[in-house]
Amino acid sequence: MNVEYKNKWISQLKKGTLSFIVLNILNKDKEYYGYDLISEIKRITDIDIAEGTLYPLLIRLKNENLVEHNWVEQQSGIPRKYYKITKEGKSTIAQMKAYWDNLNQTINSI
Amino acid sequence: MNVEYKNKWISQLKKGTLSFIVLNILNKDKEYYGYDLISEIKRITDIDIAEGTLYPLLIRLKNENLVEHNWVEQQSGIPRKYYKITKEGKSTIAQMKAYWDNLNQTINSI
DNA sequence: ATACATACATTGTTATACTATGTATTTTGT
DNA sequence: ACAAAATACATAGTATAACAATGTATGTAT
């Protein structure tokens, strides 16, 4: 087994799957803030995501109008940027899901 | 629907899935040459792969000892580089497959 | 006081897909 | 016969995204 290659592959695989996972989570219609999403993704998928990966990702999704955010001040501590999915985000993730399912089926049939 | 984002996403998704697809195809224990793999992938997955994508990918897989190749002269035309999977390739793709299946299940459960 | 956790963010590096281009041979269309 | 397309390999330059490292600021625990 080429462990190094597998690890490099997992890192590359994230380049498509991370945004997919984030949108799927937000598609549950619950609002999440960035720091929270990191632990939620870790909890669900056991995947560790660096903050330097997630924050730019959320900014990209925002720029593409797939998500929106609002700052929420806390009684104590740093204000949080809560993200929620947009209508455009919902229709886009539906298409992505269809593509993903089809790809998965195809690969399983090889 | 954000079509541009979806297309960009598909391109990013390939960064993990292409090598996975190629190794899965070679794992059938048939030998393929590069140009042939492009049409085989198109046939199976309907994904268009540029030659400038596949040839460097095969070279990387070779450098990682996941595949090996031998030149085969043709009665007419340009000689072909036939690739086949190695033992290390087989054990690695098995691990990748396990990771992929688990990831797919996780995403479906969100 | 010091370290750790929370919560945001940016910079530089690395890996990979894609476009464009190059070389050479053979086949197909007109 | 000639041009275009297909076959079959390859490399160079560009764009994108993950990751490590670092930064800012606040709050909590030892």
From TrEMBL, chains A, B:
Sections of the chain in a coiled coil: none
InterPro entries assigned to the protein according to its UniProt record, in alphabetical order: Metal_resp_DNA-bind_regulator, Tscrpt_reg_PadR_N, WH-like_DNA-bd_sf, WH_DNA-bd_sf
Annotated transmembrane regions: none
Name of one Pfam family that matches: PadR
Top-rank lineage group of the source organism: Bacteria
Residue span(s) of domain Transcription regulator PadR N-terminal: 22-94
Protein name per its UniProtKB record: PadR family transcriptional regulator
